[in-house]
Amino acid sequence: MRNSKMNHAPMGWNSYDYYDTTVNEANVKANADFMAENLKQFGWEYIIVDIEWYSKDAGTMRKNYQYIPFGDIEMDEYGRLQPDPARFPSSSGGKGFGPLAEYVHSLGLKFGIHIMRGIPREAAHRHLPVKGCGESANEIADPSSICGWNPDMYGVRKSVCGAQEYYDSIIGMYADWGVDFIKCDDICNTNLYRENQYSAAHEVEMLAKAIEKTGRDIVLSLSPGPALIEKAWHYEKYANMWRVTDDFWDEWDLLKAMFYRCELWQNHVAEGSYPDCDMLPLGRIGKGFDEGRYTRFTKEEQKTMVTLWCMFGSPLMVGAELTQLDEWTRSLLMKEDILKMVSNDYTGRQVERDEKHAVWSSFNKQTGERHAAYFNLQDEEQTICLDWNQIKQFPIEDNQPVTELWENKDYEADGSVLSVKVAPHGVKLFVCK
To answer: Which pLDDT score, from 0 to 100, does residue 398 have?
Structure first.
């Protein structure tokens, strides 16, 4: 059921890391303008409005609540959430995100939104009708299925009249708006329910069925993680992306742990099917929490993150405020010779890993291009020594030169063995054509 007409993992911008719950229409347009002018040519194309776009009081109590309990929301007569017109003026008059999506499309980009699974609690409490059937919201809502960190929604019951119709109605509305990407939250891992962490699997299926009915190519992304490896078949069948980690931020321990997660999921990357390492916390982030900050990752750690995400084949979503990018961060997002590895033509695999280092390889089955990356997982510089011929995807002739892509520098092996110094938490990424 999933959209498999994708030649590479999605690449784009998501509002969450910088704006938290407070993004508005002007912010979205500014970032879309920047992407179209500076990044689109390198493969970046999605503009995603993240959580709480329907909230009228989002961010007003941030010191106490990220998500205000039973806050003031914008909703239509069928219990379908709508953009807050004060933050998104073009949505007034029942237009929804249609005008904003049209603006993004006019730039040659694609438009996406974040949603919470289920139906608004307020719609259930008010017994609002479900569009397209005779049932009401309270009849399909499951009050025993809730999110542990966001108070806005009830889950939707399984196999009851009106449940699929509800999902059909909201997804049909999104399709009419021109939505190209849906990030659904509290669904990949319903971690409040430890005995059944995939308790909303039926809602994933209803979402996929509703998307299929629209006839529109809409990417379905599932959050949060960690995704359950034993449910890989289900994610692959019904979704395009699923988070393999909980929220990822700019901490080395979280980045180091991603090597394990990528090892676990590496065999599940395929066309239209992308385990998701979460957003890239680069540049300026965190304004929704305070005044914002520059990423805490060192430059070496930033290169390690981008290299791992690309070699693994993860979707790439930048959380920075794009209009405030410094030259260093901008250069990371324009490394075409590295970013291209998220294409379906490349297959990335871990070669070896221990507490001190990791090695990954990537092979392009169309061109024969080969990559190998040395990752230093230690807190001090180390020399990593490897025999190229031990890497199944990277056999080279003795003394054949290879190019390191971050430095754009040629290296020559001693026979088939290359020894190279790698900075703390850093990486050397080699290509052989």
So the answer is: 64
Residue whose C-alpha is closest to residue 330's, from 302, 304, 300: 302
CA pair distance 72, 183, nearest whole angstrom: 22
Q: Above pLDDT 70, what percent of the chain? A: 97
Structure confidence at residue 319 (pLDDT): 95
Q: Is the pTM of this model over 0.85?
A: yes
